[in-house]
Amino acid sequence: MLARGDCEVVAVSPTASVRIHRPPGLGKMPPAVLWIHGGGYVAGSAAGEDRAVRAMAEKVDALVVSVEYQLGPEHPYPAALDDCYAALQWLVARDDIDSQRMVVAGVSAGAGLAAALILRCVDSRLVDLAGQGR
Fold first, then answer.
1. Which of 23, 39, 109, 126 would be 43's cystine partner, CB 3.0–4.6 Å?
2. pTM, whole model, 2 decimals?
3. pLDDT tens digits, the chain, 134 residues: what are they?
């Protein structure tokens, strides 16, 4: 069992990982949020937003998965988007969430990546997302 301040970290591709935030008492087959951090595509981290993401998970009573993606300028477009897509593919493949109640959300650059990810998701028909947030 993880302590309150901890979260599970899982590699979803050779270049991306996710931080899994599961609030206490979360039921079976919960909704899920894929959270994408901000930072102008060149700064920030999923780990740096742990406190806020943990609070979000508790507030919305959902599994919240935060993406650690490659930053520019060392990793130009579409590296960050590819990492976010790998995270979404990993999330969709899980059998312990309700894929009909899945949302992609982010702040600042993360919101831009969320919008691009939605378009890629529509094009690839990976999953019919329940929504997009910021």
1. 39
2. 0.92
3. 344 457 999 999 999 999 999 999 999 999 999 999 999 999 999 999 999 999 999 999 999 999 999 999 999 999 999 999 999 999 999 999 998 899 999 999 999 999 999 999 888 887 777 666 66
